[in-house]
Amino acid sequence: MTKRSPSPEAVSAWARLMRVSRQLVEKTEDALKAGGLPPLAWYDVLHELAEAGESGLRPFELIDRVLLAQYGVSRLLARLEAEGLVEKLPVSDDGRGQTVRITPNGRDMRRRIWAVYGTSIAELMGDRLSAEELKALAALLARLRHPPVGT
Amino acid sequence: MTKRSPSPEAVSAWARLMRVSRQLVEKTEDALKAGGLPPLAWYDVLHELAEAGESGLRPFELIDRVLLAQYGVSRLLARLEAEGLVEKLPVSDDGRGQTVRITPNGRDMRRRIWAVYGTSIAELMGDRLSAEELKALAALLARLRHPPVGT
DNA sequence: TCTATGTAGATGCAAATGCATTTATATGGA
DNA sequence: TCCATATAAATGCATTTGCATCTACATAGA
């Protein structure tokens, strides 16, 4: 067990990051609930599927995009399908898999969620930092990505 | 329903923040699991209680500090008590309440979690950004706090 | 004092999550 | 061709979470 001590700067940046991200998520989830809308994870999936267009996506492709475990994707898709927001299609060249496509109702739900979600982002981020600061923040956060981009 | 559209900068900073914070949490939770240690939330509580010292804390004081719901604190404390990591004491001037204090075993567990947690912070943050960048990141994040500090 | 209201904390029940495993199909050798 | 191994997706079961409520005590006002 190799113990390394983080610098004080690393610790306080970490603490802020943990705290702020949770607060922002909580605020946004609250706003969605208040609007009678489903959780953020639903939006993430609907968003990816909307971007993917008519050809849809395979469930395993969603795993990395929405940062859910395989069983999480499986169950979330089952709920979305039950609500008529997505449809599952067999895929011709792989009998194990399926392709998931967003339905018109799904697109509509995505829009309705975005009305609240986008407002939340505008209030929580856009109103607090300038465009330059937002870019600087995004750039710093990008350096923390996992796995690290590049080499 | 007043819809506002967030700027592209706000959206990408938001996306990065959501993604990176989740990745970092996941990496750290994985490291804890790999070490046979309890989740981050346990650390948070043990840390607060360790800082509070012999006088301990009331459960309701933990709610805001660790960003858990009231029932979350109640149940987490029950688990910690069952593990002998904290103890609950009646409080003299309020028959409804209790004071929670960390035990020696709790302090020990906190240290063991920190050995892994601290290493994780060092690798995930300290190795990727300089001290100045970390300070800049923390400062930007501080501006996103909720509720906003000051006026 | 009595009553109404407020606050601290716990908990029953339903829903969501994590973990391990299962089912079904694919693929790359021997 | 047959088998061993790998991959896609689903699921049983235990744990955790969320929501609503409940119990117990506190406090302020009539």
Based on CA inertia axes, which overall geometry of chain A fits?
globular
Q: Strands of the biggest beta sheet of chain A: in what spatial order?
A: 1-2
Most extensive interface: A-B, 53 and 53 residues
What is the CATH top level name of chain A? Mainly Alpha
User: What class would the helix/strand composition of chain A place it in?
Assistant: mainly alpha
Total DSSP helices of chain A: 6
Keywords:
homodimer, 151 residues, mainly alpha, Arc Repressor Mutant, subunit A, two-stranded antiparallel ribbon, 6 helices, 64% helix, DNA-binding
Give the helices and strands, then pairings.
Two copies of one chain form a homodimer.
Chain A: H1 8-34, H2 40-52, H3 59-66, H4 70-82, E1 86-90, E2 98-102, H5 104-126, H6 131-142
Antiparallel strand pairs in A: 1-2
Chain A binds a DNA duplex (30 and 30 nucleotides) through helix 4.
Structure notes:
The structure is a homodimer of 151-residue chains. In chain A, helix 1 packs across helix 5 (104-126) and helix 3 (59-66) packs across helix 4 (70-82). The mean pLDDT of chain A is 95. In chain A, strand 1 and strand 2 form a beta hairpin. With 151 residues, chain A is mainly alpha-helical. Chain A has a single domain (26-142), classed as Orthogonal Bundle (Arc Repressor Mutant, subunit A). A two-stranded antiparallel sheet of chain A has the order 1-2. Helix content of chain A is 64%, strand content 7%. Chain A is globular. Chains A and B meet through helix 1, helix 5 and helix 6 of A and helix 1, helix 5 and helix 6 of B. Chain A binds a DNA duplex (30 and 30 nucleotides) through helix 4.
